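Weekly modeling sync, notes
Attendees: S.R. (lead), two postdocs, one rotation student

Agenda item 3: backlog of single-chain predictions. S.R. asked that every request posted to the team notebook include the full sequence so nobody has to chase files. The rotation student volunteered to paste the first one in as an example of the format we agreed on. Action items at the bottom.

Example entry:
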Amino acid sequence: MNVRRAALPLLVLALAWRSAPQLLEMVRGAWQLQRVPFAARRARVNGPLPADAAKIRAAIPYDEPIALIGPGDNDWPAIFANYYGYPWRTRLYRDLDEYRLAAGNPNRPRHIVTVSDAGARVATYPELRDVRLRAGGRVVRGGTLKPAPRTFVIPLAGSVDGPPPDSYVTEADFANDGASAVNVRMTLLPEQLVRTLTIAPHGRASFYDLVYESFGIMEVRSVRVEVDGPLRAGIWYVNRGRGEAAALPFVTAPAGGAFRCPVSECKVWEVSLLPPYAISSRRFAGDIRVDTKSSFLFASTNERPTRFLWPEGVAP
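Predicted structure, as returned to the notebook:
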């Protein structure tokens, strides 16, 4: 017992000796914080979240609910942002997919604030989705490119999401093998928004999400492409969430005819090649025949991965 009593002071001294530098640093930090204003003190200790939350709270009316979307692997930034922004009305979502799953919920806030250890900022769903798609790279790599007509239509140009993990985009590659620059004019239909790009000699233009990159919207549309020189191209309709891709044809003329659905249910798509340039779809089973003089028709299956059925004589 006497040995234990003698050892206790030595143990205390050893612990004090080892912790002294940390304690001294804490005292020094506390002394320095006393000499700065409260806002600066909070920023040093808690980072940018308090100031960011205050700015956002001032910019969005109190009666407007806010979705706080966290980084997915750490709930604390969203929890602390919720505290610093009080009394704002918030709903916490672990990540973008959790927010996306609530798409049919009328209580899902339309205002989005993304939060992380780096701070908080107002964002939009398409913006956050694009950041993730851009970081994830392409599904189609080294796809086959074919000589492109001078004018053609991409029949299915989309940038839309289904339930996670389904996320649909149109990927595209344009390659200029010649010694002169080639101008590419893309027109989103039916809006007739135009994007023009120039591909340098022996250059290339690639898209991981043709519709959003070129026109800044998330929709299912068709795109007319016009080029003023020889060009090779490849276009694919892609499910990014599942790594699935299907090549699309270069549409140059109306086409329709008979389609046979090989599974329980299919969709037949009609893409108008004349004003008002509408695109529509309807479900069918079994056989269907649609004749046309001004549209391009094709079918898609409801299986996974989706298969496309093209008119007779048309192939990607």
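Discussion: group reviewed the output briefly. The longest strand covers residues 151-161.
Action items: rotation student to repeat for the remaining queue; S.R. to check formatting next week.
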